[in-house]
TrEMBL record:
This is Bll7859 protein. Signal peptide: none annotated. GO terms for molecular function: glutathione transferase activity. Pfam families: GST_C, GST_N. Belongs to the GST superfamily. It comes from the Bacteria. Coiled coil: none annotated. One of its GO terms (cellular component) is cytoplasm. Residues 4-85 form the GST N-terminal domain.
Length: 214
C-alpha cells in the first residue's frame, strides 16, 4: 500500500534542493528522489518544465499537491510533519516570526544576493525589495546574535533553510564570514542530516559530471 505521506522531491545535487532534502531528513519524512542532471540540461526539458515552468529545483509532489518555491516548500513540509517539532503551531507566539524569517529568505535575501553576485546596482531604496544589502544583512545579524537559532533557543525548519544558505553563500564569498554567521552555519551543517546529504551530493554530482562529459 502506498504511503499517502510519501513525498517526491525533484532534485539536483549541490543546488537549492539540497536544503529541502536536509529538511526532509530532519523531519523524518518518507520521500523519493526524482533526480535531474542539471549539467545535462534535464531541468530545461519539457517533462520537467511541465512540473516547474521556471526549470528550477526544488519542487515536491505530495499526493495531488505540487509545490514549487523553496519558501513554500519549507512551510508546507514543516506543517505536514508537526510531530518532528520543527514548526510552531498556529497559536504559538513564534509562528509569526517563523513565517517572517522564512519569507525574508525569498523576498529579501535572495534578490540582494543576486544583485551582489552580478555586481549590479540595486534599485533605489524606496523601490528595492531589500532596502540595501548592508541593511538586509544587518537585520539577519541582529536576529542571529540572539541565538543559538533564528528564533532563540528553539530550532525550526527555518534554521535548515538558513543554515544551508549561509554555508553556501559564505563559501562563495557573497556573504562575509562574520562570527555570528559562521557559528550559525557550523551549528546547522554539523548536524547528521546535513552531513549525510552533503556526502551523497558529492557522489551524485561527480556521477553527473562524468555523465555530462561522456
Amino acid at each position: 500500500m502506498t504511503d499517502p505521506n510519501r513525498i517526491t522531491l525533484y532534485y539536483s545535487p549541490q543546488s537549492r534542493a539540497t536544503g529541502t532534502r536536509v529538511l526532509l531528513e530532519e523531519l523524518g519524512a518518507p520521500y523519493d528522489l526524482h533526480v535531474l542532471n542539471m549539467k545535462a540540461g534535464e531541468q530545461r526539458q519539457g517533462a520537467y518544465l511541465a512540473i516547474n515552468p521556471l526549470g528550477k529545483v526544488p519542487a515536491i509532489r505530495h499526493g495531488d499537491a505540487l509545490v514549487t518555491e523553496q519558501v513554500a516548500i519549507t512551510i508546507y513540509l514543516g506543517d505536514l510533519f508537526p510531530q518532528a517539532g520543527l514548526t510552531p503551531a498556529l497559536d504559538d507566539p513564534l509562528r509569526g516570526p517563523y513565517l517572517r524569517w522564512i519569507a525574508y529568505y525569498g523576498a529579501s535575501f535572495e534578490p540582494a544576493l543576486i544583485d551582489k553576485f552580478m555586481q549590479r546596482e540595486p534599485a533605489p531604496i524606496t523601490q528595492s525589495p531589500y532596502a540595501d544589502y548592508d541593511t538586509m544583512l544587518g537585520a539577519l545579524e541582529a536576529q542571529l546574535s540572539k541565538g543559538p537559532y533564528l528564533l532563540g533557543e528553539r530550532m525550526t525548519a527555518a534554521d535548515v533553510l538558513w543554515g544551508v544558505a549561509f554555508s553556501w553563500t559564505m563559501m562563495f564569498g557573497i556573504v562575509p564570514k562574520k562570527d555570528v554567521f559562521v557559528r550559525y552555519a557550523e551549528r546547522m551543517t554539523s548536524r547528521p542530516a546535513f552531513q549525510r546529504i552533503n556526502a551523497a551530493d558529492d557522489e551524485m554530482a561527480a556521477q553527473h559530471a562524468a555523465a555530462a562529459v561522456g
